[in-house]
Amino acid sequence: MNLKCNISNTDDPLKQIQECIEIINKIDEAELKNGEILNLDFSDVEWILPCSALLLSNKIIEACKIMDIEISPPKAKGVHDYLVRIGFPLGCCSEGNTFLPINHFNNKDNVNEQVLKISGHIEDKIDKNFGFSINYLLAELSDNIEQHSQFTQASIMTQYYSDKKYIDVGIFDNGITIPTLFEKKGLKFSDDCDAIKKAIEGVSTKEEQGRGFGLKTSKNLVLEGLNGEMYIISKKGALILNPKNKEKSQELMKKALKGTLIYMQFSAPKKGLNIIKYVE
Amino acid sequence: MEKARKVSIFDKLGERIFTRTTIQDFLSEISKLKEKEITLDFNKIKFISRSCTDEYLKFIEVTKKKIKSINQSPDVFMMVEAVKNGLNAISISKASDISKCVLCEN
After folding, report:
1. Shortest Cα distance from A274 to chain B (angstroms)?
2. B101: distance to nearest CA of chain A, Å?
3. Is B5-105 assigned to CATH 1.10.10?
4. Quick one: which of A29, A263, B7, B98 is 20 to 30 A from A101 by CA?
5. Are strands A68-72 and A37-41 parallel, antiparallel or unpaired?
């Protein structure tokens, strides 16, 4: 069975993410006959953002457990080479000078060890002015995955553009999503975007003191400390946060993402960043 | 009485501590030690996350053991202080709320 994977040639993460959700849903709906292989046809893809590669690779690695999958790579050499470099879709052990390949881990893995590995690899590659910011974001966001998401498969990747001292960090888990978790815990929200907004304001599903700071402080660090952009997509909610538009741009997507994606883009600060200012 | 014991966090967890589960497991092991006085050695610890610091401070507060920490790098020390201050702020604000309620009832 052939599944044409259409991804627009755009730099708009949200547009590509919505297209990836379409592809993910089609993979879920694929009805294969005995012995049939699902061919994911990426041949016409001319541009793929790290967040899209992350989402699709997470789905493919999960789907591989129950079906045989083949991939028709993009004809565009640049995109093809990029996907090979980042280890799409299964992840890889080798790393480049400016990027860390997709790293997958499941709920049976030691999350701390996985993040330790990623953090150790990226630290030497990036500008020193980032300080411990990448460690902080990886720590808080992966801890959220472990503590709340009930995931089976999670994926992390980073891409550093050394000439611009610019970095993309993406973290995705295929767990129960922020809105569903809120619903289960009886926390009120008007729609999926509202649930995400509440989560970044510090509303926690854990009752004990000192909880609910992970996403909130990560947002503060990215927006205020690193002057960066943050996309949080969970179920149908999509929140785009950037320093210029603190009012938050939000969108209810047509199709729900089965999981939570946090995608951040930011440049190295001009001076060394002290993350403590953003810790509460 | 058992003597004090020094435990190297680096030896158990490596140079960076990221997730609550990891430090919870480690602190649970500390709880099981026979010694009543434990010195946690932070030597070579480069980074501790906010979440782990929160768990560590909560543990210190409730454990019956006497915990002493040594060799915290400036970065680790600042994280501990920042989270400690945050926890204090929460305690104060909760205490204020309670006192307001008591005053209302009276």
Report:
1. 9
2. 20
3. no
4. A29
5. parallel
Contact A136 B82 (CB under 8 A): no
Task: Assign B75 to helix, strand or coil.
Answer: helix
Start-to-end Cα distance in chain B: 50
Q: Is B40 on the interface with A (CB under 8 A)?
A: no
Please state which architecture CATH assigns to domain A94-280.
Answer: 2-Layer Sandwich (3.30)
ipTM score = 0.81
The model's confidence at residue A116, banded by pLDDT at 50, 70 and 90, is: confident
pLDDT in tens, A203-259: 776 666 656 788 989 999 999 999 999 999 999 999 999 887 665 677 888 899 999
Q: Is B74 exposed, middle or buried (0-12, 13-18, 19+ CB in 10 A)?
A: exposed
B90 and A142 within 8 Å at the Cβ level: the answer is no
Contact status of B51 with chain A (Cβ, < 8 Å)? yes
Residue A138, C-beta contacts closer than 8 angstroms, at least 6 positions apart: A115, A118, A119, A156, A169, A171, B18
Domain positions in chain A are 1-92, 94-280
A265 touches B: beta carbon within 8 Å:
no
User: Could you give the 3-state DSSP secondary structure of residue B67?
Assistant: strand
Give one DSSP letter per residue of A165-186, joined into a string: TEEEEEEEE-SS-HHHHHHHTT
Domain limits, chain B? 5-105
pTM of the shown model: 0.87
d(CA A40, CA A69): 7
